[in-house]
């Protein structure tokens, strides 16, 4: 992402060298370079870069609805009575998706809605003797006690500082494992109160970073003179929750489509705009269905199964892990035990579709 989109070093808080996966009692470490971004600085860079390339921004502007004239989409209405017009409208409004919903494009389901919260802390013990060394690492923890039906994380940002957060999907798995009067803030507070790595941690920023996304397959993503990008048509990676890179790739696919329709075909009909749907499936989220299945199966497992998963991952090669991450059927099967078929049966019942075809 950093090279392909020309992201400057000054929006990077810290360069990391490894990824750590944790379960309640085990962990797995893989060498994997990465970058923890200063999100505010990153957004400012995007605006400055866009302005340099000719974009115009209107702040404090909340989109209301599309403007349709003679059945043709011609612009959007925002705030009370402000309007803006264009040959193509691109909806980048995130999970709210007001334009896509109004046009009948979005089909976002509340039971697949993920919510997350993150704070920046100092005084974090990144090399506590009871845990893996998180110096220069991004850590993701699978533990229903802290994130029922989701995961929590610690991302080292330099010295003794780190981004700390949790995210979970408000689905059946959350309902089975959750304490119902505990909010997402409450789960983060519970983790901070019980994990010794945070014994001397102090919150740096008063306001947390909050986010949400729908973890589900998208329906249609375009129509006449219209494209929906980013979290408006769930572009978040279902396994790792990665959003920025996927959303920027979807924006690039939209730009390629718009350029083609405006300069080559001179046609913004649904058929021509549908090139975006093809690009999304090929370049933004290939094998999305398999990765969604991996995610749902992962959150079906209890904490004890997460411990076994970490031990199994430790025995596999880097190539095998990459293949699993890409959704390889054969490599995924290497992680399954006969007792796991109870989760497969549960998954089948919940999705109301046969799972046998996936493994055939």
Description:
Residues 136-194 form the Digeranylgeranylglycerophospholipid reductase catalytic domain. It comes from Halopenitus persicus. This is Digeranylgeranylglycerophospholipid reductase. One of its GO terms (biological process) is phospholipid biosynthetic process. The chain is an alpha+beta fold. The chain has helices at residues 39-52, 98-102, 172-177, 184-194, 244-265, 270-273, 275-284, 288-300, 303-313, 318-325, 329-333, 341-351, 356-359; strands at residues 12-22, 27-37, 63-69, 72-78, 82-85, 89-91, 113-122, 137-141, 150-158, 161-169, 202-203, 209-214, 222-223, 226-228. A hairpin with a 3-residue loop joins strand 4 and strand 5. The chain starts with 11 loop residues before the first strand and ends with a helix. The relative contact order is 0.12.
């Amino acid at each position: 992402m950093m090279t392909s989109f020309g992201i400057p070093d000054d929006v990077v808080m810290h360069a990391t060298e490894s990824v750590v996966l944790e379960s309640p009692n085990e962990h797995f470490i893989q060498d994997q370079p990465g970058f923890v971004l200063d999100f505010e600085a990153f957004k400012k860079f995007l605006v400055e870069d866009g302005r340099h390339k000719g974009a115009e921004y209107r702040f404090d502007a909340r989109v209301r609805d599309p403007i349709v004239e003679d059945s043709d989409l011609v612009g959007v209405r925002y705030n009370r009575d402000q309007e803006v017009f264009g040959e193509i409208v691109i909806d980048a409004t995130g999970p709210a998706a007001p334009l896509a919903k109004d046009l009948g494009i979005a089909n976002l389901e509340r039971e697949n809605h993920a919510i997350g919260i993150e704070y920046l802390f100092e005084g974090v013990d990144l090399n506590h003797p009871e845990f893996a060394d998180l110096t220069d690492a991004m850590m993701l923890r699978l533990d229903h006690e802290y994130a029922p039906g989701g995961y929590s994380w610690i991302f080292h940002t330099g010295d003794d500082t780190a981004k700390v957060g949790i995210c979970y999907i408000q689905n059946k798995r959350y309902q089975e494992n959750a304490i119902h009067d505990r909010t997402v803030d409450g789960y983060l507070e519970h983790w901070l109160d019980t994990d010794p790595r945070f014994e001397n941690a102090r919150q740096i920023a008063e306001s947390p970073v909050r986010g949400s996304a729908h973890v589900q397959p998208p329906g249609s993503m375009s129509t006449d003179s219209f494209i929906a990008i980013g979290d408006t048509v769930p572009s978040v990676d279902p396994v790792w929750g990665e959003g920025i890179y996927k959303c920027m790739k979807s924006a690039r696919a939209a730009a390629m489509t718009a350029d083609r329709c405006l300069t080559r075909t001179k046609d913004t009909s649904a058929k021509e705009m549908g090139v975006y749907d093809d690009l999304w499936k090929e370049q933004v989220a290939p094998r999305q269905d398999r990765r969604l299945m991996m995610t749902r199966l992962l959150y079906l497992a209890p904490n004890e199964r997460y411990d076994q998963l970490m031990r199994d991952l430790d025995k596999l090669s880097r190539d095998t892990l990459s293949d699993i991450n890409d959704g390889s059927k054969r490599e995924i099967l290497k992680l399954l035990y006969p007792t796991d078929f109870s989760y497969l049966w549960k998954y089948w019942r919940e999705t109301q579709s046969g799972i046998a075809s996936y493994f055939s």
